[in-house]
Amino acid sequence: KAASGQLEVKMELLDLGKLLWQTLADMEEVIKRSPVALKTEIPKEPVFVGADGQRMYRVFQNLIGNAAKYSLEGSRVYVTLKEEGGIAEAGVKNTSSRELTGEINFAERFVRGDESRTDGGSGLGLSIAQSFTEACGGTFSMETIADLFIVTVAFDAERGDVL
User: Fold this and answer.
1) Cβ(134)–Cβ(140) under 8 Å?
2) Which residues pair with 89 in a beta bridge?
3) Which of 42, 136, 145, 150 is placed for a possible disulfide with 51 were both Cys, Cβ 3.0 to 4.6 Å?
């Protein structure tokens, strides 16, 4: 539905920092069981955007879950949020447990980083995250630098009293 523009979104004024903290709290057990350390840089001050809270929760749940699952053992996953020049940017960065090649579009539906994986994943997580972000009016970008995997979700920042 999201890819075809048929996804219903309920836009609201959303504190992105609060949403990230809530997602991390809800995923505490997943993170504890993963072989990584989590590092956060999320400001205490609200960072408001106009978006669908449920859809964006799912975006960050997918991104953090993937990072916890597919990161190099003993490495760190960084979850960040900053507001600069009227743009709110949330990022998830991790070092992959497998070698990444620049030839793979991880946001393409059913694409998986390692075709031999048998972990039950569908290969839809990043595609859904991208579609939900864009349906809410944000931008979704991915970058690989060697084995570093970086996802950035960006929105126009909003004042706390206006959407």
Assistant:
1) yes
2) 82, 154
3) 136
